[in-house]
């Protein structure tokens, strides 16, 4: 299925925690949006693989995604240098052929997030090489963005996602096995103030973007504007 945008997360709830607003916003405008979880989250402290898969599917529907794939790469073992993992991501890109790819940012304490960032970045380039030995016709996305996680304020691009914020939060709440304190051992996701922290971060980004809620991203390459009016007050173009 050809898509306009493809969002990657290392684990089944990572997209909802970082870039779900952009995914929902694009989907609401009629664009084809796909979600890809690299692993099944099998090493997570809470929730089994089947539960997390069902939660991810429900979250994808809440965001309005056209599809949600899981590449079943090893949780805790993502590796940018593993050829089989690289081929899996390249074949996913060649199958969906998105103009925009969103991946985790590499500056993160979770090693899977670091490797996911590098794995997707390498795949975006190598997918465009006609002789790279992977299935599918060569393809390279036009743009790659990296979504920012907890506490990282070094955004190069901030997007107002206010119209999609409630859908992002509804999608996040689908991951009850990770968020509901009554369902397992305590983690930082079950802390009483966690969802308030998510909202506060969204409000900070939103203030920078001139809206109520926003998301922060870093860019691979320059962001080009085809309409200079986007530089005017409010960032709105006619």
Task: List the defining traits of the structure above.
alpha/beta, 8 helices, Rossmann fold, 7 strands, 7-stranded mixed sheet, 238 residues
What does this structure look like?
The protein is an alpha/beta fold and about 240 residues long. The protein has a single domain (about 5-220), classed as LmbE-like (Rossmann fold), CATH 3.40.50.10320. About 35% of the residues lie in helices and about 15% in strands. It contains eight helices and seven strands; from the N terminus they run βααβαβαβαββαααβ. The model has no long low-confidence stretch (mean pLDDT about 95).
Secondary-structure blueprint:
Elements: E1 5-9, H1 14-18, H2 20-28, E2 33-39, H3 49-63, E3 67-73, H4 83-96, E4 100-104, H5 111-126, E5 143-147, E6 157-160, H6 165-173, H7 176-179, H8 194-209, E7 214-219
Parallel strand pairs: 1-2, 1-4, 2-3, 4-5
Antiparallel strand pairs: 5-7, 6-7
Helix pairs in contact: 3-6, 4-5
The rounded distance between the terminal residues' Cα atoms is 32 Å
How is the largest sheet built, in terms of strand order?
A: 3-2-1-4-5-7-6
Mean pLDDT: 94
Number of strands: 7
Can you tell me the CATH architecture?
3-Layer(aba) Sandwich
CATH superfamily: LmbE-like
Q: Can you give the helix content as a percent range?
A: 25-40%
The Cα radius of gyration reads 17 Å
* Total domain count: 1
Class by SSE composition: alpha/beta
Major β-sheet, in short? 7 strands, mixed
**Which word captures the global form?**
globular
Helical element count? Answer: 8
């Amino acid at each position: 299925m050809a898509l306009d945008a493809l969002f990657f997360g290392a684990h089944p709830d990572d997209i909802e925690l970082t870039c779900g607003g952009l995914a929902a916003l694009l989907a609401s405008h009629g664009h084809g949006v796909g979600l890809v979880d690299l692993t099944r989250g099998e090493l997570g402290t809470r929730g089994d693989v089947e539960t997390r898969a069902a939660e991810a599917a429900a979250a994808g529907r809440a965001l309005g995604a056209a599809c949600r794939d899981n590449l079943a790469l090893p949780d805790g073992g993502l590796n940018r240098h593993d050829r089989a993992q690289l081929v899996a991501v390249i074949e996913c890109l060649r199958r969906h052929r998105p103009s925009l790819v969103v991946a985790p940012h590499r500056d993160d304490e979770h090693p899977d997030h670091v490797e996911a960032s590098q794995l997707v970045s390498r795949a975006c380039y190598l997918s465009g090489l006609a002789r790279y030995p992977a299935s599918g016709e060569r393809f390279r996305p036009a743009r790659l963005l990296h979504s920012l996680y907890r506490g990282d304020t070094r955004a190069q691009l901030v997007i107002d996602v206010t119209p999609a914020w409630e859908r992002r939060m509804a999608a996040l709440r689908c991951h009850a096995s990770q968020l509901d304190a009554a369902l397992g051992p305590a983690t930082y996701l079950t802390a009483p103030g966690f969802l308030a922290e998510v909202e506060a971060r969204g409000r900070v980004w939103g203030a920078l973007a001139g809206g109520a809620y926003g998301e922060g991203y870093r860019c691979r390459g320059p962001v080009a504007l085809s309409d200079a009016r986007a530089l005017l007050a409010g960032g709105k173009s006619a």
